């Protein structure tokens, strides 16, 4: 690999031609972000070896880190059992989040099991 | 916590009233699956302390593991920076996937970086 683009011809893009991509650090296992890809951004990701998303708000391709330098080198791309979600493991060259946080999920925890709570 | 349901009033559900939920094992860090929640399934998840999704194909609430026993005990629920995706860490009582695999992402790897390839 890299594989031929036809390798992902079986993917189930949604009615808008998009598929969600979960981005996980290959080094820490941390989930960094979730973004969307279309056929073209997935093709470009494979060609570049770096994540390229489809920005739904700007309606344009978005090469992650192209301006900030915080690119994501793709280690692997997996599909799930119904081929409608991607799991992309990356080695990240900086924070994933525009806020400067390592992960976009650093923002807010809305629930913690009472089993996990400490007494302090 | 558990927190009041109003804690997630700020979440950005999509036009169909859904929000994607990434399910990650709290023990192994493995991403197990991605599914969708609506307001009701998120409420029930917090009340039960187990994942309850919205099945888009069956248009009904889906208490994960209710029949198989492969429930997912919720450890924490986090939101991302734009509050339109959930990251739910769970302790799973069995395989996440209907195929019997630990993860729904055990199915197919469509790309591996040439950096990661071995010579065997």
Structural descriptors:
homodimer, 120 residues, mainly beta, four-stranded mixed sheet, globular
Describe this structure in words.
2 copies of one chain form a homodimer. Chain A is built from 1 helix and 7 strands, in the order ββαβββββ. With 120 residues, chain A is mostly beta strands. The mean pLDDT of chain A is 91. Chain A is 8% helix and 35% strand. Chains A and B meet through β1, β2, β5 and β7 of A and β1, β2, β5 and β7 of B. β5 (72-79) of chain A pairs antiparallel with β7 of chain B, so a sheet runs across the interface.
Helix content of chain A: under 10%
Distance between the termini of chain A: 51 Å
Oligomeric state as shown? homodimer
Specify the number of helices of chain A: 1
- Estimate the mean pLDDT confidence of chain A: 91
Q: How would the global form of chain A be characterised? A: globular
Task: Please describe the topology of this protein.
Two copies of one chain form a homodimer.
Chain A: E1 19-25, E2 31-37, H1 39-48, E3 52-55, E4 60-63, E5 72-79, E6 86-92, E7 108-112
Parallel strand pairs in A: 1-6
Antiparallel strand pairs in A: 1-2, 3-4, 5-6
Summarize this structure briefly.
The structure is a homodimer of 120-residue chains. By secondary structure, chain A is mainly β. Chain A contains one helix and seven strands, in the order ββαβββββ.
